[in-house]
Amino acid sequence: MGVVTVTASVIWIGVAIYQTLVTPVDVNVPVEMLKPLSPVLSGETLTELTTRRQMENQDWSSLSKVQVRESSSSGVAQR
């Protein structure tokens, strides 16, 4: 019975791989994504970059450290 199961599994996987390789993939890429990129930065782009919001520095010292130790018998981390 095990030989039949292994044979059926190998055939199933082989057919799935064959179908994946033979079936054409329909890829629709918008035209604007195919246009070449300009290597020149415009003044508008530079202004936009400088006016972005900056993240404020956060004080993380109030957070407590959590120590995790692993139990050797169950393999599950405990706090």
Give an overview in words.
With about 80 residues, the protein is mainly alpha-helical. It is built from three helices and two strands, in the order H-H-H-E-E. It has helices spanning about 1-20, 30-35, 45-50, and strands at about 70, 75-79. The chain has a two-stranded antiparallel ribbon with strand order 1-2.
Structural class: mainly alpha
**What is the radius of gyration?**
28 Å
- The N- to C-terminal Cα distance equals 47 Å
Count of separate DSSP helical elements: 3
User: What do the pLDDT scores average to?
Assistant: 82
Proportion of beta-strand residues: 5-15%
- Largest sheet, strands/sense/barrel: 2 strands, antiparallel
Shape annotation: flat
- Report the order of strands and helices: HHHEE
Uncertain residue ranges: none
Query: Quick one: how many beta strands?
Result: 2
Share of helical residues: 40-55%
Biggest sheet: strands side by side, in what order? 1-2
Describe the structure concisely for a colleague.
With 79 residues, this protein is mainly alpha-helical. The chain has helices at residues 2-22, 31-34, 43-50, and strands at 69-70, 77-78. Helix content is 42%, strand content 5%.
Blueprint (SSEs and pairs):
Elements: H1 2-22, H2 31-34, H3 43-50, E1 69-70, E2 77-78
Antiparallel strand pairs: 1-2
Structural key phrases:
79 residues; two-stranded antiparallel ribbon; 3 helices; 2 strands
